[in-house]
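Suppose you are handed a protein chain with no further information: no name, no annotation, nothing but its sequence. What can you learn? This example shows the usual starting point.
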Amino acid sequence: MKIPTISIASHRITRLIIGGNPYSGISHHSAAASEAMEDYYTTRQIMADLRQAEENGINTVLARADRHIMRTLNEYWNAGGTIQWIAQTPKDTEYANLNDYLQIIARYKPTAIYHHGGTTDKLYAEGRLGSLRDGLKRIRDLGCAVGIGTHDPQVLKYCYTEGYDVDFYVCALYNHTRHRELYLPDDRYTAFAAIQAIPMPIIAIKVLAAGRNEPRDAFQLALENIKPTDAMAVGMYTRFQPDQIRQNALTVGKLMSEPGVSGFEKKSSVPCYFEIEGS
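A reasonable first move is to predict its three-dimensional structure. Written in structure tokens, the prediction is:
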């Protein structure tokens, strides 16, 4: 399956990215579901899923920079895998110093590093988002593409208008910071309006509402309302559907070959109530 790509800095990234939340036991359903993911995703199983992703045209994984993830990726690459890694920093409660932890992440040569969305939103709420600039510069100095994650379109707007030095953003289609595990359909349209207004690559996450949405309809809605220069990162859990990665790649590939589904082109029905100052 041929999946179109976008450009982030000097890298070509498939518009469907495999998401790593399941590998870290993050189900966004329940403690029991998260524990089941941890039991299922051994190093061997993560590597099998990454192989399936590459075999079906996905060239990038977006995953937390947890210690076990970095070790697994290293083993996968040593075994011949070539998938690119977009690293998400952990929560701010999981490291003592961001710059020191960025140095650890950089040892594994990620394509890009982006700042954890929940922590971004916390800093914004506390009026301390400016403190993030040093960390972004550190990522730039380490030779990686630089990103900021958020669950709140208002934060996305703020970072762009304030000129944060990034190559891309990661934005949730559902406002997890405000609504936690309530996946409200209207949140998506607020996110789409922000994504459309910002002329930079954006990776949309929470496309399937952590498995609550029917894949084809959710993929189509997202692809019709993000820009052609944007991508989607989607967590895929193969325990109960071993070929889920292949099926998702086929679905997205077919959708992107249909007229009008390749990306927002000034014709979306999304309400235009989100504007960037000066645009």
